[in-house]
Amino acid sequence: MTLVEILILVAVAPFLTGIGAVYFANGKRKPRKPSVLLFHSISTCQQAHFSHYSPEKFVQVIGELARFPLCSRTLSEAAGNAHGPADFAITFDDGFESFYSSAFPALEANGMKVTVFPIAGYIGKLSLWDILPPQPHLNKEQIREISDHGHEIGSHTLTHANLPFLSDADIVRELADSKHLIEDITGKPVTSLSFPYGSWNKRVWEKAKEIGYQRGTCYRHHNKIIEGLVPVHGVYSFDTIQDVIDKATSKSSSLNTYARSRVMSHFAKGTPLWKFQSNYALFR
C-alpha cells in the first residue's frame, strides 16, 4: 500500500465508521414505541427559518397517513398504555392560528387527533415573544372548539421562556399559570407540556411534575430522556411528504433525513432564535 493510499484511508475511515454505525444502529432497533411528530406553523409564509410547513404538503401527508394501518393518538394517549405498535402522535408547538385554518380541517376530515401546545400568555395575540415577524396565535374560542373536537390541549408555558435559565419561582409561574389559564378555557386538565426551544433539565422537569404535568415532549437530547418525557421528531419546511411519513412510521432509511432531523433540532438553542428575557440567568 502506497503512502497516498494510507493517507486516504486514514482520512475517510472516521466517515465510513460513522455511516456504518448509523446503519448498524438502525438494523438493531428495538420494537418501536409510537413515533411523535412536531409541527409549528402550517403556512405558506416564506420567512428566513424552517419551522413553517406547506398547507398543501400537510394535507397530502395526513391523507397518506390515513391510508396506513396506523392510529393517530394524542400525546397523552401515545405516552400511556392505550396504544399499539403501529400508533403515532402529532403535536403542534406555539398554538398559531394557522393550525385552526390550515391543519384542523384536514385532521378532522381524516379522523385524526393531535395535541396542540399554546403559549398561554399569547392566546389571541401576536407572537411578539419571537424575534421573527409576528404571527397570530389561536384565540380562546378556537382553542375551546379544538378541544371539544377531541384534540388535546397542552401547555407551551406562559411566555415561551427558556426554562433552565429561570429561578425556581419563575419556572413555577411559567408552568402553573399557563396550566391554569388553559384549563379555564377548555374545562379539562392540562397534563402535557412542551418545553420551549426543546430546553429542559432535571430541575425543570421535577418542578413540572410537582405542578401536575405527567408528560413532556423533547426534540433534543433524546439520548438523555428520563421517565415521563417523550422524544419528538421535528418537521421542517424542506421535509418532503415521504420524509414526514418515514418519521411517523419510524421507517426512515435516508441518511439525509436522519441527519437533518438531529442537526436542525439544535438550532433552537442558538441565541438568534430567541429573545433574551430580563429574568434569565445563564448559570445556575
How would you spell out the order of helices and strands?
HEEEHEHEHEHEHEHEEEHH
**How many helix segments?**
9
Oligomerization: single chain
The residue ranges in which pLDDT falls below 50 over 5 or more consecutive positions are 3-31, 269-273
Counted up, domains total 1
What kind of sheet is the major sheet?
6 strands, parallel
CATH topology, by name, is TIM Barrel
Structural class: alpha/beta
Mean pLDDT reading: 82
Number of DSSP E strands: 11
CATH superfamily: Glycoside hydrolase/deacetylase
The value of Rg in angstroms is 20 Å
Amino-to-carboxy terminus distance:
55 Å
CATH architectural grouping: Alpha-Beta Barrel
Strand content: 5-15%
CATH class: Alpha Beta
Q: Helical percent range?
A: 25-40%
What does this entry look like structurally?
Strands 1, 4, 5, 6, 7 and 11 form a 6-stranded parallel beta sheet that branches. This protein has 9 helices and 11 strands. The N and C termini lie far apart (55 Å). The longest helix is centred in the first third of the chain and has 25 residues, at 3-27. It has one domain: Glycoside hydrolase/deacetylase (TIM Barrel). It has 284 residues and is α/β, with parallel strands linked by helices. Helix 2 crosses helix 8 (241-249) and helix 6 packs across helix 7. 39% of the residues are buried. The protein is globular and about 45 Å long.
